[in-house]
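Question (not urgent): is this output format expected?
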Amino acid sequence: MSGDWRRGAPVRRSELANALRALGVPEGCVLLAHTSMRSIGWVVGGTETVVRALMDAVGPGGTVAAVASWSDIPLRMDEWPPDWQSAYLDEMPGFDPDHSEANPRYGRVPERIRSWPGSRKSAHPDQRVVAIGRQARWLTAPHALDDSFGACTPFARLVDCGGQVLMLGAPLRSLTLLHHAEAVVELPRKRRRTYSLPIATPDGTVWRTLHDIDVEHGPFPYEEVVDRGIDPLEGIAAMAEAALAAGVGVRGRVASADGHLFPAAALVKFAMRWLEERFSSAPERQPEHPCRDDRKRQDRE
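Got this back:
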């Protein structure tokens, strides 16, 4: 026997799919899933079974997506030893949306979706979204290199199409769509960052300078309103919990995991209001976002 019977009963594909439907996953929807395999339990067939169960839940007209990012993404290089910096600057392969491996810190399911036959991938090295299903192509392209959570991104299109966000054993602090609310809300106290990443081009690797909200330290001073230390992701968790308390989203069990399901548009609307209530002081200063999405012009699968 290859399984570990000490971890409880094996979890079947049919069990997962039924539990996802019971949680409220709508057939035909675009579903952005954050998944913790460890939390679900021992799954018969591993990540393949989880992906197939997610596809079963949304049905043949649905789409399953995940945030994949990039496995060896060279962030905060200025803090590295000089010889490490030189090695990466000299020979780091540029990010390729199709071939660069998903970041394992995002769990095992994003890499399974990335490598799934026919999957689509967005072109941002840090916030790459991977998807399979009917609207996968439309969801993943384009993805602006600057303002990676904003208007011209898969996160905006998830809201636009009435999509859903599933937290399948994943902590609420990893609810990426709330970064979209941080990006689009027009508030003066927003913090931004500038950083560089290598991009694959026909002429070789090119290091591009990117501009975005500062998710590393927190786009807003959450330490002023969330009594949980200085981890900026605790602000994300606080917003998610407040949304659940207000009736935006539902909780339930999926195998051994805590499941949470959020309607994307309602969640972003709630989060923007939550941010406005706490960080509205000082004169506004907001950059323009020239890229706007037009669903009717996209080639949707």
